[in-house]
């Protein structure tokens, strides 16, 4: 499965966060699109509308398990998608910004 390290994700990369609502509200990467894995199939159209036409989708969750499932699904659909290794836990540990919807500092559940 295609995977990238947190430090390989550029600041302007398209990021899809598939964690659940409570995890998202506690803190997320600024600018990420939030579609919980539990709603992913029903909301797939939101992703195809928001994602760059020929760009890569970086999929992230808490630790990498749920995002791996979504990444595999997207790859099977012919989409350039990669799993962010270690998820938001590694993102936060690497010093990457984690914010709330209000733009305040957040944390990873």
* Rg computed from alpha carbons, rounded to a whole number of angstroms: 13 Å
Write down how many β-strands occur, each being a DSSP E stretch of 2 or more residues.
Answer: 5
What is the count of helical runs? 4
Query: How is the main sheet built?
Result: 5 strands, parallel
- Which stretches are poorly predicted, pLDDT < 50 over at least 5 residues? none
The computed structural class is alpha/beta
- Approximately how much helix is present in the residues? 25-40%
Which word captures the global form? globular
- Mean pLDDT across the residues is 96
**Strands in their spatial order, largest beta sheet:** 1-5-4-2-3
- SSE ordering: EEHEHEHEH
Q: Report, as a whole number of angstroms, the end-to-end distance.
A: 25 Å
Strand content: 5-15%
In short:
By secondary structure, the protein is α/β, with parallel strands linked by helices. It is 29% helix and 15% strand.
Describe the protein's architecture and organization:
- This protein is 29% helix and 15% strand.
- The chain is α/β, with parallel strands linked by helices and 109 residues long.
- A five-stranded parallel beta sheet has the order 1-5-4-2-3.
- The termini are far apart.
- The mean pLDDT is 96.
